[in-house]
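seq as requested:
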Amino acid sequence: MRERLRSDGELSELPVHSLLGVITVPDAERKNPSPWALITRRMLYALILICLVALVVWLDSDGYSEDLTFIDALYYSAVSLSTTGYGDITPVTESARLVNIVFITPMRIAFLILLVGTTLSVLTEESRRSLKIQRWRNRVRNHTIVIGYGTKGRSAVAALLADGLPASQIVVIDTDRQALARAEHRGLVTVHGSATKSDVLKIAGVTRARAVVVAPNLDDTAVLVTLSVREMAPSAMIVASVRESENQHLLEQSGADSVVISSETAGRMLGLATVTPSVVEMMEDLLSPDEGFSVAERPVAEDEVGASPRNLADIVLGVVRSGELYRIDSPEADSVEPGDRLLYVRRVTGEDTAAQ
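struct tokens:
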């Protein structure tokens, strides 16, 4: 098992610039073009300069050491702007030499600045991204890692964002570049790689994470990832998803704190929809944090201590005490104690959605 979790190369031991293709930290202030896009654009500018100088030289072709065709002028422009200067074509008249001094020499300087500037821009951008990754790795604490950005992962992220968790505190791990691009577009930190490898989890900061959402497409992958996460982060909360109920005990034995069975949950909703569709509508409303009603958790107020949760202003569904959840109909939930937290139905208003 440990060999399966081991990476071919220790990513955490690589220099930061080697992780540019692995970790992406979105820039909230600006969207910079990729280095290749920057190079392509500046190469286009360089070609425009060469063609412009070639046109000027061709229009004054009589002032050079030989009769010039446009191809000759293009050749002279390229070797002149690049400072190669073979000397086979030279300006011989005063007007041609004046054009070289007044026009071509500034174009040569601009051409060199363009090429050097491109190199410096690429190096600066790479250094800036490396510094940003290094700073993020040093500062990230108590974040939430979402493993798998498929349908379940995207829904989990949407719920986290709607609940007020900053996008900078969510890290997505996936092997699909397109899925990671969608996550990055939402302002999430992304890590490219398989979460079955401990080194990928390590550079995502799993040892300092508050919670980990395990939502891959395959149940066996979920078990392996959960086992690895629990070994590396004993105190993190692990919420895992499986398709089939027979695999639930495997995830619980691997260290998952909570297991969601996607196929059975969907099946129950489908069954309810055929008998009582209004119940399904209300359930979907409660599960959607963006509008209508939602299930939320809050601490007990001082004036609520000792009271029955059934008599509070909020519709209380359960009481969380010392990490244990007691339903509203259980004897332990007859009265509220100091330090309890209440699960209640919250009305989501337009102001709440706008604030989030």
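The radius of gyration is 31 Å.
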